[in-house]
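Retro notes (design track)

What went well: tokenization of the new backbones is finally stable.
What didn't: we kept losing track of which sequence belonged to which structure.
Fix going forward: every design gets posted as structure first, then sequence, in one message. First example under the new rule, 203 residues:
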């Protein structure tokens, strides 16, 4: 299947530890700010009782933002010129508690959930005003390279089929199938009518 993506501008994408906290906060607004990209990592049981400030504090600590010398981070940040406009979470699949605990991504699959050689891109954010310009696909490609450089053998995503329907950005945080297909991901399974498990092998 051929996917055609509209691209308007090329992002400069860096590991999140090379971004500032102010930059991250400007990208994660609305529901993304309330989540602070912690729900997938913690799982619902630990995430719901936390206050928004606690989630933000955890996110700040785990990104190691403002510390370009840090050897660990949990995502990447995209800039259009000098304006921070996009974020993608990317890390070892095993660290995402909500992903491990959900039966959906594992339907019809038999593999070790704690395999640290497999990385995942569970969510992405593009700032309002910059959406629909091909930036999500750029984030996916950069996330794959980020994972490859850190020893990943494979990277997974869990994008959505929109079926021509309009969806809110909060729901669309997993990204569209087209962005993953453009980055060389292949379909693994369709556990629900709208969710696709996709994967690219790096080894």
């Amino acid at each position: 299947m051929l996917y055609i993506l509209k691209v308007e501008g090329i992002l400069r994408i860096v590991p999140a530890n090379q971004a500032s906290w102010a930059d991250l906060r400007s990208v994660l607004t609305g529901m993304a700010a309330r989540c602070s990209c912690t729900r997938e990592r913690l799982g619902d049981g630990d995430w719901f009782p936390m206050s928004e400030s606690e989630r933000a504090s955890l996110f700040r600590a785990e990104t190691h933002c403002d510390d370009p010398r840090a050897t660990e981070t949990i995502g990447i940040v995209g800039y259009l010129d000098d304006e921070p406009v996009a974020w993608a979470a990317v890390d070892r699949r095993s660290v995402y508690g909500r992903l491990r605990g959900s039966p959906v991504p594992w339907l019809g699959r038999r593999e070790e959930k704690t395999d640290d050689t497999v990385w995942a891109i569970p969510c992405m954010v593009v700032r309002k005003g910059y959406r629909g310009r091909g930036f999500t696909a750029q984030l996916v490609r950069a996330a794959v390279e980020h994972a490859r450089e850190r020893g990943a053998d494979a990277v997974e995503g869990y994008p959505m089929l929109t079926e021509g329907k309009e969806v809110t950005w909060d729901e669309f945080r997993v990204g569209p199938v087209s962005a993953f297909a453009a980055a060389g991901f292949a379909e693994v399974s369709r556990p629900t009518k709208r969710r696709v498990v996709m994967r690219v092998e790096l080894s």
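Added context from the reviewer: Helices lie at 21-27, 31-35, 39-42, 44-47, 52-63, 97-101, 135-149, 177-182.
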